[in-house]
Structure formats: C-alpha cells, structure tokens
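Exercise: predict the fold of this chain.
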Amino acid sequence: MNIAVILAGGKGTRLGADTPKQFLKVAGKMVIEHTIDVFQSHPQIDEIAVVVHRNYVGDIENIVNNNHFDKVKKILMGGKERYDSSLAAIRAYEDKENVNLIFHDAVRPLVTHRIITDCINALKEHNAVDVVIPTTDTIIKASDDNTISEIPDRAQLRNGQTPQAFKLETIREAYRNALKDPNLKATDDCGIVVNYLPNEKVYLVKGEVFNMKLTYKEDLFLIDKLFQLKSITDELDDESKLTKKLTKKVVVVFGGSYGIGEEVVKICKEHGAIVYSFSRSQNGVDVSNAEQVKEALADVAYKSGKIDYIVSTPGILIKEPLANMKYEDIETSIKVNINGAFIVAKEGYEYLKETHGSLILYTSSSYTRGRAMYSVYSATKAAIVNLVQALAEEWSEAKVRINCIDPERTHTPMRTKNFGSEPLETLLTAEKVALYSINTMTQPITGEVIDVRKK
C-alpha cells in the first residue's frame, strides 16, 4: 500500500506572508491543491494523508471536498517541529502492514508522476529513498571567523528534494532511535534514517530542477512561470482515447473556417463529437460582437441541449510599427484578440458551468516579451494569458476549466499573409496544434499555458 503524506504544517514566515505559503494561489489554484492533485491522479498512490497546523484543518477539509480528492483519508495535526509532522503520519499508520510512506512537501507543487513512480519502484529493493539533483554551485564550508574552511568536491554533492519514501517499519524504527536523543535536530526524514539507522542505505532517485520548493517571495513568481511554460504531456491521446472522450460531446469552435480552427472541427467530427463552427466568412459570426456570439451559443444549446467545450481561435496580426499603424487597425486588433476572448468567455460560462466543461483560447510566444513590429499583437496575447489565469480562479468552484495554447510558428493563412512563403519543414502544422488543443480541452487542468513546439 502506497500512502502519500503531504506535509503542510508550515506557517510561511520566511515568505513574509500572512497566509501560510501552501495556501497561496499560483496558476489558478492554491499551491497545496496542485500538490495534492498530482498524488490524487497517480495510479499507484492508494491513499493520501495531509498533515497541517491545527488552525488550518478546516481549510484542508474544504479543499478536499471542493476538489473531490477522494484519496485523502486522513487530515492530521502536526506539532512544533518539522519532524512532528512526520511522526503524526507514522503513528497514524503504525498498525498497518506492507505500507510505504511517501513524504512530500506541500509547497513543491511541480513534482511529477515520473518522480513518484521512481520512488515507488525503488522501494521494491530498498527501504529508504531520497530524491536529489546534482549540485551546480560551488559549496563552501565557512569557519567561525567567516572564512572558508573547506570546499567539498562538487561531484559528490547533491541537492535534496522530496518526495522521500520509506517502508513504514524502517522510518518507524529510525524515529524510535531518534526520540531517545535529547539533542535531536532534524530537517528531513532521510536525515533521521542516516543518523539513527547508520547501517541502512538510502537509495537516490533523480529529481528535477523545476521540482522546486516555495520558500521565498521570488519562488512564487518562478513557480507561477513554470506552470505557465510547462506542457501537459509530451504524448497526445491515441485514437481510441480521443474517440472515447469526444463521442457525443458538443463542441463549439469560433474561427472554424480555416487554420487551426478548421483542423479542430475536422478532428472532433472524426472522433464522434457534435461540432458547431462559427466565423465571419462562414456564417457571419464575429467574436467581437457580443450579440452574435450570444445568439450562436444559445442556438447550439437549444439544438443540442448542452455545450461541453468551446474553442476560440480568431486572431489578427498586423506586423507594423505602432507609429505607422492606423487607429482603425489598432482597434480592430484589440476587438478581435482581446474583446473577442472576453465575450466568448462571458457568454460561454453559463453553458460550460452546466457541463463542467472547458474553454480554449490562444496566445503566442510573443506574450513573454514584446517585440518590435508586434507591439499591439504581443500586448493582446499577454492579456490572454492573464485572462486565463484570472478566470481559472473565478471559475474553479464551478468546475469550469480554461487554458490557452501557445504554439510556435504555425502554417496558417494568417502567417502566410504576414510572412509570405516559408519552408514548411520549419513550421508547425495546424493539425498538430489542433491535436494539442483538443488534448488540453479534455484534460482535468485549468489556468495553464500549453506550449506546442516543433521537435
């Protein structure tokens, strides 16, 4: 039995925040929600226990109920010291047999299924497991007079992360010995094993650089950006999974007459979805016109009885210095790229709330940094990212998901209009972007920017 123990007893004093850092929001959800969700969705995790300060037990109960985290079976109270939280979990399961305890910091929300799987597999041959990455900085040991006393060989050094995983009897025995030490000091559980079960070797599993811990204010910014930039997966759903997810689902595509939108329509239909496509050229529906969008969605809901997914692809790129642009072109870009997204989101929300559906919008690689000749376009695409993150929070309780796709240079009519003929082998295909879009809209994620890159 594999039990994940989420250690959430911290008060966030180093972060300088009134709210404990595990309850701060990043990428549309609380940090601890992201963390629990990784273990909730891992097929080899049988149960989850959350250890928290007594003042926040009610908050964890609400998080578990709101997110339907049905693997969370215990909410335990920690103590004054870091190791008191681990002890709470050990004691809660000490009468169980054949149990693995997998301890993880609540404020490491970017842990991956791969790391968890490697820890579980390592426990088949080892009794204690740590997750580490190579140390890249030179480590200096300081003397009492603030001078260098030693520079250890970096090749032998590692930075420790979590999870740390143990067979229950091993970590229980280590703590029994540790509690006899009147000078006990411990910052992690592997340290307890190393110091108090010296004959027990701790096996090392490869971690990830981005599996970072939220400790300081700057970390919150970095973690938020990592969530924005990560892809949901390197592999797309296969044909059978896609058909199972899309059959009889009602999909509305704005901008479905060409480019990425046209490919979304085609693929969804091929896999059994009921698809409605709208565009200015196709049926006179302009996403920047609220009444037209409202009528289109109402008509779909009337005919089909529901709307499961909405994909909005329309965008305008005018590649020109701002000083040379006509105000008419600026206004048109803003109306389509920004107002259109606002309108589709606002008008689509009530329908998606009924089905717990999702909305897909589109940004561009230029959202991360404005570039000359792209000032208006870059600004609108940055706004899309912020809109997605904001609505992910606003819509979380209603279980409506919203994400945006960030494709590299893609072969579409809009790009050809601005750049002319380019070698096709240097461009993404609209079909590949469409597949990632569909994959994203059917995933249980929200508030994320999904990168699609040509490999």
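Check your answer against the key: The chain has 15 helices and 17 strands.
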